Amino acid sequence: ARAREREREMSLEKVVVRNKDLNDPMSPWSCFTTYYKREIIVQGYPYKTVEHYYQAQQFTDEEAQKRIRETKSGRKAKALAKEITKGRVEDWDEETKVAVMKRALKAKFSQHQDLKAQLKLTQQAEIVFEHPKDDFWGVDKEGDGDNWLGRLLMEIRQEYMLDDIRSAMGQGGGISFNV
User: Are 114 and 123 in contact (CB under 8 A)?
Assistant: First the structure.
C-alpha cells in the first residue's frame, strides 16, 4: 500500500506534498513544504525556512521578527508567532498572506537552483499540499480546500518555464516575433 501511495505521489499528473514527509529521504517533494530547511534572504535578513519568513511578516515589531527568525525550526517559528501579541500586522488578510507566501517561495527557489530544478521537474503536474487541518494552504484527504501553497508553487513553476522559453528564444534558437 505504501509503495502504491509513493507511486501516486510521484505521478507527473499530480504531486502530493505533505509536512509529514519532511524527514523522509525518499520523498522528492518534501522541499516544497514551508518547513524545509533552506535559508532564504529576504529584505536583507536571513530566514532558516519559508515558514520563518512567513511568520515573522505577521509583525511590525522588530523584536518579534528577530525572535521568530532565531527559532530552530519552522514549527517553532509558527508556535512562537501564535504566542506573541505585541506588534501584530492589523490587515493580515488572505490577500496579504498569499502575497507574503509567494515572496518567500520565490526567494527560496530563486536562491537555490537545485530546488528550482526540482520544482521544474513537476512539469505540468497539479501540485497539492495535503494537510488535514489547513484548508487554506492545503486540502484534506478528500481534496477539499483552497490549496494556496500548491497553487503558488504551480504559478512560480509556470513563471520559471516561461523564463526558460524566453531565454531560449533570446539565444537565437527560438522563434522571432519581430515583423
Answer: no
